[in-house]
Hints:
Elements: E1 9-11, E2 15-20, H1 26-37, E3 52-58, E4 64-70, H2 74-83, E5 91-97, H3 104-116, E6 120-125, H4 134-143, E7 157-159, H5 168-182, E8 185-187, E9 193-202, E10 206-215, E11 217-219, E12 223-226, E13 229-232, E14 235-238, E15 246-248, E16 252-256, E17 267-271, H6 274-282, E18 303-311, H7 314-325, E19 332-341, H8 346-352, E20 359-363, H9 369-378, E21 381-385, H10 388-402, E22 407-411, E23 413-424, E24 427-440, E25 444-449, E26 452-464, E27 467-469, E28 471-473, E29 477-484, E30 493-501
Parallel strand pairs: 2-4, 2-5, 5-6, 6-7, 18-19, 18-20, 20-21
Antiparallel strand pairs: 1-8, 3-4, 9-10, 9-17, 10-16, 11-15, 12-13, 12-17, 14-16, 22-30, 23-24, 23-30, 24-28, 24-29, 25-26, 25-30, 26-27, 26-29
Helix pairs in contact: 2-3, 8-9
Amino acid sequence: MADKKDIINVERSPIIVIMGHIDHGKSALLDFIRKSNVVEGEAGGITQHTSAYEVEHKDKDGEIKKITFLDTPGHEAFSDMRARGAIVADIAVLVVSAEDGVKTQTLEALQAIKDADVPYIVAINKIDKPGANVEKTKSSLIENEIYIEGYGGDTPCVPISAKTGEGVDILLDMMLLVAEMSELTGDEKIAAEGVIIEANVDPKKGISATLIIKDGVLKRGMFVVAEDSIAPVRIFEDFLGEKIDEAQFSSPVTIVGWSKLPCVGSIFQSFEKKKEAETRAAAFVPKDNDNSHNSSGKDDGNFVIPIILKADVAGTLDAVKHEVQKIKLDGTLLKIISTGVGAITETDVKMASGNKDSIIVGFNIDADSQAQTASEQYDVTIETFNIIYKMAEWLEEEAKKRTPKVESEEILGKIKVIRNFSKQKNVFVLGGKVVEGSVKKGSSVRIIRRENIIGEGKILGLQSQKIETDEVKEGIEFGARIESKIDIAEGDILEPYTMVTK
């Protein structure tokens, strides 16, 4: 990190999160802004799994300004992240329907915003609807102690239609004005730091994570650390999925190749040297009480399954939650993202629909008809029980089925080539010694010369003391037939490896 005297602060783009009741148009607003303001021709390239994106908006002075939006549920943007001391958003937008006014979820979202201690703007949405009543909605806000400008408070309020776009430009202008008042700045001379906002496992690519850079600059070739998870900045993409070499504060980026699944909401730091990154990761000590919405107490699984729990009464809910927390699986984390008392509703299903692996579990209750219809529409799994151990057994088996198999590389050992006896076409007859681990017939090998990988080959046969064998262990000299398009020389190091599925 740079010394304070070296810090060069420049204006940075605001990071915005949209919150509110689930049916009041948060997603519609995000979709309208993305389609209208992302550079033409690029919007269609945004992948469904990207949790943030940048837009460009011309401010009142005609200057093009960037704004970063978090396309992620409010509870993820605040609750989980706040539990780890990381607030990623600079400004919140509280969406309220001009038809319905303030609802219970509106107040829950407002409390999350207040807990995060960030400025916010009220957007009164659906003003295009026949039943819209902006003045009545404003009265509803005041009744619930949301004091907007012109009604005894200083919270900005903008009427909009996410469907037609009316008022959206004014809302974007207001975001930039609030950002200007907040004096958001970043330092271009320091290594990047920020927050993990999404993490997942791709069976082909491996572990990837989406990051928001809060300060500094991230460059290809650096190393990123979040808690005890580390990744080289090699597969490095912007929010459009385009490969990049550098990104700076307020930018959402994706990095592939993490050593383990990083925790959503954890703070990341970047380093120029791998050794520095490894030292930081090794120094991480998990907090014993870091178990917010978390069935095992740590986000140390390779694969997260979100769980929504509903029960008939609070006492039963506590018992069910405790039973779920007892389920421990290698490589899989059952993460409780929501709990509640009463029937499973359409709202629960919509919350679960954001992740294809989510499961809704009910105990001593049923799903109402709207929830059942929605579960078919969104392909969300709902299962209900009245015997607690049967619930636990089913959930454990279901989690095992959903956990993806990931192929990874396993280094078997290290061989030093002592003699090169002969070569016929692409097959070499060599003498060598196993200096680490072991070598097996059929293994692939990397050919290393002066610490550089120059090619690959395959072990066709092994001999130890002139007897054919399937494996040679550490410390033993042996003969081998190795197929390779690259010439193998005396003194080369061969590194046998295999691909394993876990």
